[in-house]
């Protein structure tokens, strides 16, 4: 099917700023699931082509992405028309994915966002998407953006199409200073307001990836006073629709859950065999250190969001309190923002100080799946977490009770602020699926959180210390449960597996369809107008 045929026959167009061939953040994992879900459901996805990225070059070399031969010009106000080539994925059983490639644009090396010209590129992407869609996509279709980078495209298309935006985060940008490069009257809405402020006023539907994150945007100090303060005028418009699993439980794991429910002791023996088999597949030196200890994994990008440097400090606190604690924490992390190297240094110092209790890697490792199968606990100390990868295989999360993590994890024990948050989402009679912790707010809480967001490595402010101490206590408790309370651990493993079963990307997609159909009946133009002026004045 040609590009034009695919567009002419689609029912909606999903705009994303990263895809499976320009791998970057956790959003990439979401996009992979969306492409699978959209297959045979009328979806077409469009994204920029960041051709300088290593993963992009490899995709072209291996034929996972091909040039369709279709191109078109995009007018700008500062130069001759820019030719745009359309590339396409070749993965079977996925919705069509079209990448837009333009010489001199989308030149990020480590990620699609790794360029000084990001705002210019975002605006150009909007113009290119409009040029490709108008005249080819039926007016009955709808446009589904994601995050601030796709807002200009959605704004340009909104007069003709219903529009939706899903927030995976609230990173935002002011676009007004770059508008002189483009002749697009609709872009004038960005002269005063940021991309997300504009989206909350003008787009038909705005959602986010978890009900807990939608709640957090309205109630958590980090969002209301730090990261999303400027969006508070319109956060009531943001609807939480829960994402589903990134990796589904295997038949072996489902069988384990059945055994744990029927006979916890037998189930734990089965889990022990599974974990020992996974440990045997780890590198020899790592496997030797892990045996006889409770293996915990701290994974993900080394960004301020994930607070891996706080995790390192918490592990140090725990081992200083109990030097013989039978725990091994492995930091399976990858490079992220400019503070990533400073965070890695903190992790490395911990591992040098406690070589028998902590290890690290930098970058993707081939044994990561085995690590998650071998591990007993998954440590998630997130500053904020829209959804999060709390569950995978049989691993049990130890998580900061915030946003999407709080929604998903029913803690074994409830105490303090973490317990009060759990009461919002979980029945005390439901199966526990992990452990949660939360620091008590300090008198300088908003300022402390802002420092944790902006300064790397994490500064030793009051909130940082309380965070590390709360996690250290949870880590000690987790090891004690794994070693001395087998029934409680069995219940958490069972809960972690069961938690993954009712989640479906089709349910997620159905929620969006319901909202966009409602928007077709009642366009936002008929609703009372709101605006960000009050929020702007309060800055």
Protein model, in words:
The structure is a single chain. This protein has about 550 residues and is of the alpha/beta class. It has two domains: about 5-245 and about 510-535, Glycogen Phosphorylase B (Rossmann fold); about 250-500, Rossmann fold (3-Layer(aba) Sandwich), CATH 3.40.50. The chain is about 45% helix and about 15% strand. The chain has 21 helices and 15 strands. Strands 3-4-5-2-1-6-7-8-9 form a nine-stranded mixed beta sheet, with helices on both faces. A six-stranded parallel beta sheet has the order 12-11-10-13-14-15, sandwiched between helices. A hairpin with a 7-residue loop joins strand 3 (about 65-75) and strand 4 (about 80-90). Helix 10 (about 265-280) packs across helix 19 (about 485-500). Residues about 525-530 and about 535-539 have low confidence and may be disordered.
Strand arrangement, major sheet: 3-4-5-2-1-6-7-8-9
Derived from helix and strand composition plus strand pairing, the structural class reads alpha/beta
Rg, please? Answer: 24 Å
Number of helices: 21
CATH class of the largest domain: Alpha Beta
Strand content: 15-25%
Which regions are unreliable across 5 or more consecutive residues at pLDDT < 50?
526-530, 534-539
């Amino acid at each position: 099917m040609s590009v034009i045929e695919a567009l002419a026959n689609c029912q909606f167009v999903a705009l994303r700023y990263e895809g499976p061939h320009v791998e970057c953040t956790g959003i990439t994992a979401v996009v992979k699931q969306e492409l699978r879900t959209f297959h045979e459901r009328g979806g077409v996805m469009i994204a920029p082509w960041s051709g300088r990225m290593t993963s992009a070059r490899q995709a072209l070399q291996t034929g996972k992405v091909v040039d369709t031969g279709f191109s078109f010009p995009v007018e700008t106000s500062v130069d001759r028309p820019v030719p745009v080539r359309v590339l396409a994925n070749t993965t079977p059983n996925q919705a069509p994915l079209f990448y837009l490639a333009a010489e001199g644009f989308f030149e990020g090396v480590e990620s699609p966002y790794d360029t000084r010209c990001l705002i210019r590129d975002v605006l150009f992407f909007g113009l290119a998407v409009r040029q490709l869609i108008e005249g080819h996509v039926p007016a009955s279709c709808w446009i589904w953006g994601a995050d601030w980078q796709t807002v200009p495209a959605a704004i340009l298309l909104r007069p003709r199409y219903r529009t939706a935006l899903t927030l995976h985060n609230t990173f935002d940008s002011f676009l007004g200073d770059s508008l002189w490069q483009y002749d697009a009257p609709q872009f004038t809405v960005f002269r005063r307001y940021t991309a997300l402020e504009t989206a909350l006023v003008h787009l038909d539907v705005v959602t986010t990836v978890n009900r807990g994150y939608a709640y957090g945007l309205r109630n958590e100090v980090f969002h209301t006073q730090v990261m999303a303060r400027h969006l508070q005028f319109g956060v009531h418009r943001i609807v939480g629709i829960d994402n589903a699993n990134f990796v589904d439980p295997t038949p072996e794991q489902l069988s384990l859950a059945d055994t744990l429910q029927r006979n916890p002791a037998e189930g734990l023996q089965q889990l022990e065999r599974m974990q020992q088999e996974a440990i045997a597949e780890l590198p020899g030196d790592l496997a030797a250190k892990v045996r006889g200890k409770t293996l915990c994994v701290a994974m993900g990008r080394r960004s301020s969001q994930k607070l891996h440097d706080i995790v390192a400090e918490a592990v140090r606190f725990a081992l200083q309190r109990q030097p013989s604690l039978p725990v091994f924490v492995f930091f399976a992390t990858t490079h992220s923002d400019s503070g990533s190297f400073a965070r890695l240094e903190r992790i490395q110092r911990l591992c040098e100080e406690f070589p028998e209790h902590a290890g690290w890697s930098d970058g993707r490792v081939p044994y990561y799946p085995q690590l998650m199968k071998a591990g007993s606990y998954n440590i998630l100390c997130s500053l904020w977490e829209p959804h999060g990868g709390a569950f995978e295989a049989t691993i049990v999360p130890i998580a900061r009770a915030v946003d999407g993590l709080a929604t998903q994890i029913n803690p074994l024990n409830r105490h303090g602020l973490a317990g009060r948050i759990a009461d919002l989402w979980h029945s005390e009679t439901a199966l526990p699926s992990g452990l949660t912790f939360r620091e008590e707010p300090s008198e300088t809480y908003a300022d402390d959180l802002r420092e944790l967001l902006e300064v790397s490595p994490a500064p030793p402010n009051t909130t940082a210390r309380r965070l590390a101490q709360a996690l250290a206590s949870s880590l000690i408790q987790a090891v004690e449960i794994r070693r001395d309370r087998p029934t409680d651990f069995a219940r958490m493993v069972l809960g972690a597996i069961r938690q993954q079963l009712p989640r479906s990307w089709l349910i997620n997609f159905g929620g969006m369809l319901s909202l966009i159909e409602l928007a077709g009946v009642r366009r936002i133009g008929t609703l009372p107008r709101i605006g960000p002026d009050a929020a702007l004045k309060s800055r």
